[in-house]
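I am still getting used to backbone structure tokens and would like to learn alongside you. To get us started, please write out a protein record for me. Start from the sequence, derive the backbone structure tokens from it, and show both lines together. Once you have written the record down, we can walk along the chain together:
***
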Amino acid sequence: MPPCPCCYVEELMACGLERPMPVTFWWDLFGPSKRDLGLGEVGSVQVFVVIPGGRRLIFEPSAEVYFSTCELWNHSLPVHRLPTELLSHILMLAISPHGLESDPSGHPLARVCSLWREIILDTPAFWTTISNQSTRDIIRFKIQRSRSSKLDFIYLQGSSHALPGWQFKEIISPHMLRCNSFRIRISYGYYDGLWLNFQGSLIPRLIVDSTDSFLKQASKDYIPEDVENVCLENISIPWQSSYFPKLRSLQITGAFVKLALYDSEGPSAFSVIKDILRTCPCLKVLKLGPFQRRYKARLNETLMKGEIVSFPSLESLEMKGSSSDLFWQVLDYIGFPNLSKLVISPTRLDLYSGRTMYSVCRSIGGRSLLQSIIDRANCERLTIRIRRGPSAGITVQGINDAGKVISLDPLTKDTSTKKVIEVLKAIKSPVRIEISGETDGSFVRSVTEAATIASLHYLPYSQKDRG
């Protein structure tokens, strides 16, 4: 009879250890997997243990005892004392999106120990990504494992290694009511047109992306007219000839502005944004970016000479990862009378970087755009951070019970007393001010006189800070 797995632990405890020490296993100098070993084979596994004092213990158990001992050892580790929900969340973060698209049970993390494998198999969140790059059997298995959770479908076009559209639709059609998002991935410049088979289904969020290194312009037919939430990644559509009356939320990321910013004969980024707003009259949320760092906005003097166009439906505007030129153009020449959320995060501040600050702080009808957003969003906490010195900049952050509603980072790099006071005078609500870097008492006094301060945090600057 082979010894009980507990015997190894007892023998190690007898050597004066509080818990088993780390062990090293060999199987012909390689670590075996369970499928490589016959469970009835005795003496085929060698366990080598080094304990304090240089003493060594060598065991030669059967494969069954070997794996039982491994599991006993694994369960004694601190990581296995974590709650199952927390451990499953950690494993979810450790597996890449590509790993979730395929079979999670084949991921290396599912082979670490029986507990981790059991968590991955029994947690529906690991099985909710359904891609046509998987086989029919795996797709059905994942749908079964996901139980009643919402599903994220991924449809890759133009690949000979993926299920064609009609087969994919046949499998997932009975489960479309559980759809959380539907991603169309266009590859190799090939459009098979079979996405039209999925139209008419209720899709809470539609994502269209390009896996090519060059930018493509997709047909407007990829976006059904009745869709309400769309995300475009590294791809564009002809906005001038499109119309989406029910679209409520639009996110555009990646290289979509390449057509607008580098082609001197094409439209400017500003005109593209105007076309988007005209195309979607009921749009409430618009997220632009992050874009690539090298892009620069081209000014369109003709459009800027026209009248300011107002889009009252828009309530949330986010612009990230472009030059500040694009941002002030949008804020200066397009009106958003009902805006209650504004996020601005430029990659770099250009020649007219001060224009963004002017656009946000200028008075319209007796109050600034910034103060209007604060009032509409019921901003509970407003923070202005003033950094002086080499990393100078002014950032504005505002939150309410729903989360962040204002994020201007940075609003400007100019932290002169005049510029700081201009920002503070545009805000009538109480603010929390944080000052850091090279400054003096006169600057602090000017700040306190210009603002309604809820709290002031200032660390006096000294020569030691330079080091």
